[in-house]
Amino acid sequence: MSLNKPYIFIALLGLSAQVSAEALRDPTLPGKGYSAAGAVTQNQNKALVLNSIVSSGNTAYAVINNKIVSVGDSIQGVKVVRITPSSVSLSDGRKLALFQAIIER
Question: Is the pLDDT reported for residue 1 higher than 80?
Answer without folding.
Answer: no
